[in-house]
Design goal:
Helix content is 56%, strand content 3%. Strands 1-2-3 form a 3-stranded antiparallel beta sheet. Helix 4 packs across helix 5, helix 5 runs antiparallel to helix 10 and helix 7 crosses helix 8. The structure holds coenzyme A. Coenzyme A binds next to loops.
Length: 380
């Protein structure tokens, strides 16, 4: 039998081969299918990134136009999905509401019965999910707050349409660009917890929707996507720039994790945080309240000085979204609106060369012992 090594959290374990994204740890660089995420964020848009991840190349102008048309045409979500979501208790976190929405949507997909390994059908399903997920999040929020569903506007981009459905009015150019950039930055990131979950789920030959719903569950956790919401809650708890240093020192002394800092892969910095930070600062300036960005600066400096820890993308995303007026419980769902593209690209890749995921565990339970019939078991 081959020797097995145990690595908590699978740290350093290679669990697959992928052509989708890569992290250069030395250079703190992230590439999607060979392209630097900085360039994609600065010169491209989310739809172009989604196309790149799903179709394995950057689109030409006619290809992007056609892709945008397909996305726009598929954006509306069937009424029964919203009806099911309206039955969910109103205290549900929007990530749980999103799981419900996508799970209910799945059987209505025109290719629901296609083979789970049909790459082209999976691509079309991925495009439909990418198209509809923003409406499910935005209208899910409206439904849980007793407001009417807003139908998508086919003339708008993914980012603008999301803000339109959420707020009921078209966004300004800056807000659209800010959300669009965050969607580019959040789209893909190797074998992170939710992507690995998605790959694990479909490795049993389950379907792409099941893979995405599982991934949403994994993304929700505070150590992963949930960190952007927790980071904002922490900034609000800190409250003032003067309180930042004592708050963080106290938290570190109590061995608390500071949300939005650190990373399993990166050692020097998170390549995405710089871009998001610039957007966050500009969003704060435009909102007329720069306090959160000021507090964030103090926290960043202290975390570097004390722990040599840098902010990951979730930290600046938190105060960027806040400054744009987005409700905190929607920060992680926005992450999902973007990451659905990376999850689907990974699911498709997994199913093209699949082997069921089945690692081992080290048993530390009791050794074999005789079964005692229920009436003969001593009562303590
Ligand atoms: C991202 C993260 C889960 C990576 O975890 P990991 O690789 O398993 O690293 P560990 O949790 O084992 O941390 C290693 C050490 O750094 C410390 N550390 C890591 N992140 C920290 C943080 N955000 N705040 C304070 N200390 C942190 C740990 O306490 C630990 O210290 P120790 O060795 O003295 O016990 C972790 O950095 C974290 O929990 N960050 C906060 C949540 C977050 O922002 N998640 C989003 C990631 S994109």
């Amino acid at each position: 039998m081959a020797t097995t090594t145990y690595s908590p959290g699978l740290e350093g374990v290679v669990a697959g081969i992928s052509k989708i994204s890569d992290i250069d740890i030395e250079k703190s660089r992230l590439i999607y299918r060979g392209y630097d995420v900085h360039e994609l964020a600065e010169k491209g848009c989310f739809e172009e990134t989604a196309y790149l991840l799903l179709f394995e190349k950057l689109p030409t102008r006619p290809e992007l136009d056609a892709f945008n048309k397909t996305l726009s045409a598929a954006r509306a979500v069937p009424g029964f999905v919203y009806e099911a979501m309206s039955k969910v208790p109103s205290n549900a976190h929007p990530m749980d509401l999103l799981k419900v929405g996508l799970a209910v949507l799945a059987p209505s997909d025109p290719e629901y019965s296609a083979s789970p390994t049909d790459t082209e059908a999976n691509r079309r399903k991925a495009v439909r999910m990418t198209s509809k997920i923003g409406a499910i999040v935005a209208n899910g929020w409206r439904i849980s707050h007793g407001e009417k569903v807003v139908e998508p506007d086919p003339s708008l981009s993914t980012a603008a349409n999301f803000l339109y459905m959420l707020n009921g009015k078209k966004p300004e150019e800056f807000a659209e660009k800010a959300i669009d950039t965050s969607l580019v930055l959040y789209a893909e990131h190797g074998f992170n917890c939710s992507t690995f979950t998605a790959r694990c789920t479909v490795s049993s030959l389950s379907d792409i929707y099941s893979g995405v719903v599982s991934a949403i569950g994994a993304l929700k956790g505070n150590l992963h996507g949930g960190a952007n919401e927790k980071a904002m809650e922490m900034l609000m708890e800190i409250g003032t720039p003067e309180n930042a240093e004592p708050y963080i020192r106290d938290a570190l002394a109590g061995k608390k994790k500071i949300m939005g800092f650190g990373h399993r892969e990166y050692r020097l910095s998170d390549s995405r945080a710089g871009i998001m930070g610039k957007i966050g600062k500009e969003a704060a300036r435009r909102s007329g309240n720069e306090k959160w960005a000021e507090i964030a600066d103090i926290v960043e400096k202290l975390m570097m000085d004390e722990k040599k820890l840098f902010p990951n993308v979730d930290f600046p995303a938190a105060y960027a979204y806040y400054s744009l007026g987005i409700p905190i419980p929607l920060y992680t769902p926005i992450f999902a609106v973007s990451r659905v593209t990376g999850w689907c690209a990974n699911i498709i890749e997994q199913l093209q060369n699949n082997r069921i995921m089945r690692p081992k565990s080290i048993y530390e339970g009791d050794p074999l012992k005789p079964y005692v019939p229920i009436d003969q078991r001593p009562i303590d």
